[in-house]
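Hi support team,

I'm opening this ticket because the web form for multi-chain structure prediction keeps timing out on my end. I have pasted the exact lines I submitted so you can reproduce it. The total is 902 residues across two entries, so I didn't expect it to be a heavy job. Is there a limit I'm missing, or should I split the entries? Thanks in advance, R.K.
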Amino acid sequence: MSEHVNALDVIDLTAGYGRIQVLHGVSFSVPVGTIVALLGPNGAGKTTTLNCIAGLIDPMGGHVHIGGHHLNGAAPDRLARAGLCTIPEGRGIFPNLTVAENIDLFAFAAQASPKEIQERAFSQFPRLAERRTQLAGKLSGGEQQMLAMARALSSDPALLLLDELSMGLAPKIVEDLYEIVGEIGRSGVSVLVVEQFARRALAVAQLGIVMVQGRVTALGEPADIEGELSAAYLGGAA
Amino acid sequence: MSSFVSFTIIGIVLGSTYAIAASGLVLTYATSNVFNFAHGAVGMVMTFLYWELYVHQGWPVWFVLPFILLIVAPAFGLVMELLIMRRLTTANTTTQLGVTVGLMVALIGAGQLIWKPGGRRVDAFFNGSKVSFGVVNVTAQQFITLGLALAVALGLYVLLNRTRIGTAMRAVVDNRELLALHGARPNVLSGLAWALGSSLAALTGILLAPQLNFDHTTLTFLVVSAYAGAMVGRLKSLPLTFVGAIALGLLTEYGQWLYTELPTSWITDSEGVIYGLKNSLPTIFLLGVMLVLPQEKLRVGRVTGTKLPRIPSWRTTMLWSAALLGGSYLLTGAMGEANNARFGQTMCLPLIMLSLVLLVGYGGDVSLCQLSFVGVGALVVARGFDIPFTGLGFHSQISPLSIVTAFLLTAVVGAIVALPALRLRGLYIGLGTLAIAGAMDRSVFESGLVGFGAQGSTIQVTRPSWLSTERSFALAVVVAFVVTAWIILAIRRSKYGRILLATRDSQAACATLGFSTTMTRVAVFAMSAGLAGVAGVFFAGMSVTPGTLNFYFFQNLPLLLFAIVFGVTSVTGVLTGGFVYGCITSTFIVGQHPDLVGLAYIVVLVMLRLLVNNPNGLVGLLFDQSRRIMSRPDAVSAPPGSAAAREPYPATAGLGLEAPVGSA
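Hello R.K., no limit was hit. The queue was backed up. Here is the completed structure from your submission:
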C-alpha cells in the first residue's frame, strides 16, 4: 500500500432510515496507521456513518473507499473477509455461545489458523482463558468488551471500526480498553473509533472529527477541534 | 409379557422416527428462529415423490433414495430458505405462523393436484424380513430406522458442537448481522440448515410410509407428534429432543398396549372416552410438556409495536353496516334457497374470524383452537340442557337463551384454556392451543358422552320458526356479524381496548405501569372464546347438522391463515378473508371443482409473500394505499422533523421503530 492511499475515505456520504435523512454529505479520511476519533452528541449520525462503512446500511449517495478500493454496496461479510473489522455498539459477542466458541468464529475473517488466533486472544486476555467454557452472555460487561476486542487483536485487520467502546462500562475498564486501542494503533492498524465521551478517545487519537446533526463540523488534531467540540456538546451548534 | 416387549420395541422405533423429524425441526428453528409448520408437508411431498419414482416409474431403490435425500430434498430446502424463510427470521410470530402454515396448506394442495388421493403403498425395506429374538421379532425396517436415528443424532451433535460451521449456525440465531461482521456468510449457513432439515423431513416420511395408509394429511400430521418431542428440548436442545421423542413413542405404544389389555366392557361403557384419550396421548403429552416448561420472561427494551389500521368513525361503521345488511338482503332475495344456504354458511366464517380480531389482531396472542371454541358453542346448542333451579332450558334449538348460554360456557372454556397458555408467548401458545384443539377433537367432540359421537357423527338442530327459511337464517348470520363487529369496535375504543393494545406492544411496560397483564389476557381469551361460541350457535343453525368433521383441529390452521392474509387487525380484513375462505371451502367452488381448492391455496401462498413486512394483511395494504392517494400533496419529500414526519400516520415501518433508538 503506498503512503498516499488512505485506509478509509468517506466522500459526501448521505444515508437515512425510510424518509428520515440522517447523514447530509459526510466526508473525511482515515490515513493509514492512524487512530481517528469520530465524536459528537447523541443523534449526530456517528453510528449511521459507521454502519454505512461496514456495509450494514446502504447509503443513499456518496462513496466509501477502503484502502483505495471503491466499496459501496458490498456485503458486510465480504468486507470482513477483505480485512475490515467492525465491533458494533453494545458488545459484539454472541451471548449464547461459550467464550471459546466465540473465539473460534474469529477465524472466518482472519488469515491466521484457529489455533493461532486462540493463543493470541488468550495470551492478551488471560481472564478469557479462565472463562473459556462459560457462556459469553454470563461474562461481566468489561469481559464481554474484552472478548469483542480480542477479535480485533487476533485477526490483523487492515481497518478497525469501533463503536461506543465505553457504553455501560466502569471508567477504569474504559481506560484499560483505550490503552489496548492505543496499542492496536501503534501496531500499524488504522482505527476509526466512535465515541460520545470525547476526552477518552482524544487521548489516544491522532485526529478527531466532530459531527453534529449529520454533518462534519470540525476535523483536525485534538487540540484544534477543542472549541468546536465544546460547542457541539453544549448545544451551541444545534 | 411378550406383547409388552413388542410394544416397547415398536415404541422405540416410532420414537426414533419422531426423533429424526424433530431434530430437523430443531435444526431449522435453532438456526433461523422460524418454526416450520410445513416440515411434515415437505416430508409428505418427498414421500410421494419417492413413491412416484420407486413404485410408479420403477426406478431402482439404490438410486431413488440418495436422489431424493441428497439432491431433491436439500434443493427444496434451499429454495424455501431463499424465497421465504430468509425474510421471516425477524418477522413476528403471527406472520411466521401464517407463512409456514400457508406453505403447509399449499404443499398439501399441490400434492393433491399432482397425486390424486387413492390407494398407494410402499413396501418395507427388504420386504419386511425379520430377525427373531426369542419371543419377539424385529423387522429389518425397524433396525434401519433405529440405526438411522442414532446416526442422525450423532451426526447433528458433532456438526453443531464440534465444527466451526456448526458453531456459526448457532451464532446465526444470536445475531445474524454480527456474524456477517465476523466474515461468515449467514445466508449460506441458514441455507445449509434448511437443506438438512428438509432432507430429514423426507427421511421421516419415507421411513413411515410402509406402516401408514398413504395419504396427504396423515403424512403431514404425523409430524405434529414430532413437535411434542421437540418441545421437550424447548426447540433448542437436540439431546433432550431425542429423549422426548423416544418417550413419546413409548407412551403412544404403551397406551395402545393398555388399551388392548383393558376389559372390553370398560371401553364400550365409556362411550368413546377411553378410545379418544388413547388417541390423543401425543397431544396430552405436548400439553404436559408445555405446563412444565419454565415461564417465559418478560422481554424488556424491545419495541414491537405495529401500526394498526385506523378505527373507523361511528358514522363510517354505520354506513358500512347498512350497506352490508342491505346488500345481503338484496342478494338473498335474488338467489334461490340452495344458494342462500351456501351464502349463509360462507358468512359464518367472517363471523367466526371476528373473534380472532380481538385475540390475534388486538391482543397479539395466537390461537389455533378457535374452531374448537366454535365447536363448543355448537355443541352446547346441539346437545341442549336444562339450567338448574330456573326451570329454563333448551334442546337442540336456537334461541336467545341458547346463545347466551353458549357465550358464557365457551367463555369459561376459553378462560380455562388461557390459564396454561398464559405462561407462554407467541409460538408456544400457537403450538399449545393446537394441541388443545387436537385433544378436544378426540376426547370431547368424538365422545358419545358429551360430544357429537364417533367420528363423522352429527346432531340435528332446529331453528326458531320465524327463521326457518335459509334466507332468513342467512340474514340472521349477517346481523350477528354486524352486531359482533360493533361490539368489537366498541371494545377497541374503550379503555380496555387501549390496555389490550398496550399489552400487545410491551408486557413489561404494562407491568411497570401497574396493569395486570395476566387479567387482560385471560379476559381477552375468554371474550374471544365466547364470541366464537356464539358464532358456533349460528354455524350450527346454518348447517342444521353440525358434527365432528366441522371442527377438525386441522381446519384451525387455514382459518387463522386466511384471517392473517387478509388482515386480522381489522373487521374489513376478516370479512373479506372469511368470505373468500368460505367460498373456497364450504360452498360455491368445492361443490363443482374440488381441484380448485389446491390451486386457491397456492394463490394464497403467493399472496403471503406480500405479508412479510405487513402485519395488517392485504386489507391493511389497501387502507395504506388509499390513504396515500388521498394525502399525497403534503406527504412528498418532507424534511425530517417537519409536520409531515409528525402526521397522525407516519410511515412507522420505515421510520426507525426497528432502528436502535439513539443510534443515529
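A quick check on our side: Residues 633-664 of chain B have pLDDT under 50 and may be disordered. Let us know if the file doesn't open in your viewer.
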